Amino acid sequence: MRAFLRNYGIYLAWLVALVATAGSLYLSEVLHYEPCRLCWFQRIFMYPQVLLLGVAAYRQDRHIIPYSVLLSSVGGVISVYHYAEQKIPALSRWLPCKVGIPCNVDYLGSGWLGFITIPFMALMAAVLIVLFLLAARQKPDEEQIED
Prior knowledge:
Distance between the termini: 16 Å
Low-confidence stretches: none
Shape: elongated
Helix content: over 70%
Radius of gyration: 17 Å
Strand content: under 5%
Order of helices and strands: HHHHHH
Number of strands: 0
């Protein structure tokens, strides 16, 4: 499994970014869920990764890893705050969204299974990208030298 993730981690991270981007576009463009301000910030950190990780996966270029981990980490932190704002009503009073729809609106009702909301899915995408990229840091031929 470790060797698989080292070989295909960038490709898997690209697939996660692609699905996350397609999912967010589906929610806003097909289901007409208007993104709040925090959703837009999360998208800013996810959308470019489709192109960056796609090119890196094609070229098998591991130099993208620290940059993509940084983008996903920042987007993940925004997702954590957004999720907390949905689940802890007092947070929306501290830093309220004043433009567009409120950030504490949960389009999925109380969330799937009671806890899965759109910001939660964005957080899981960010976490998966980071984990896949961290697993892909070492080149497969470096693994043989160290063993």
